[in-house]
Amino acid sequence: MGAKIAAFILTLVVNILAAMVGFVMLIIALNGQNESDAAYGMAVYGILAFLIMFTMATLAAVLVHFLLKREFRGWTAAFMSIIVFSIVGFVLIAICIVIGVGITEYLRINY
């Protein structure tokens, strides 16, 4: 049980840090855009990043559960799941940045 909780919390912390860095990158990417258009892109990024953070943390705990069933040690299972879902979270947050910029550009051009 401790390995699952540790994997959940550590994966959540890593993904929160990735989302914060991603938000700074999004703000830099939206530099010069109209504030009313950029607000929608930042809102979409925030919602998607929030969903990704908790989904990756939950999936890390689930993976630990399955690895423990296959008789891995607790720390090994937690370490593997933290690494895997932190990397997946980084990639998905990078995709969220592109989505946020895309929504802002779409609103700027069409409205």
Top keywords for this entry?
90% helix, mainly alpha, 111 residues
General description of the model:
- This protein has 111 residues and is mainly α.
- It has one domain (2-110).
- 90% of the residues lie in helices and 0% in strands.
- The chain has three helices and no strands.
- It has helices at residues 2-29, 35-69, 74-110.
- Helix 1 (2-29) packs parallel to helix 3.
- The longest helix has 37 residues, at 74-110.
- The N and C termini lie far apart (51 Å).
- The mean pLDDT is 96.
* Biggest sheet statistics: none
- How would you classify the helix and strand content by structural class? mainly alpha
User: Which of globular, elongated, flat, extended, rod-shaped describes the shape?
Assistant: elongated
Average pLDDT confidence is: 96
Query: What is the domain total for the residues?
Result: 1
Number of E-type strands: 0
Low-confidence stretches: none
Order of helices and strands: HHH
Number of helices: 3
Percent strand equals under 5%
First and last CA, distance: 51 Å
Using only C-alpha atoms, the radius of gyration works out to 17 Å
How much helical structure, as a percent, in the residues?
Answer: over 70%
In summary, what is this structure?
It is built from three helices and no strands. The chain has 111 residues and is an all-alpha fold.
List the helices and strands and how they pair.
Layout: H1 2-29, H2 35-69, H3 74-110
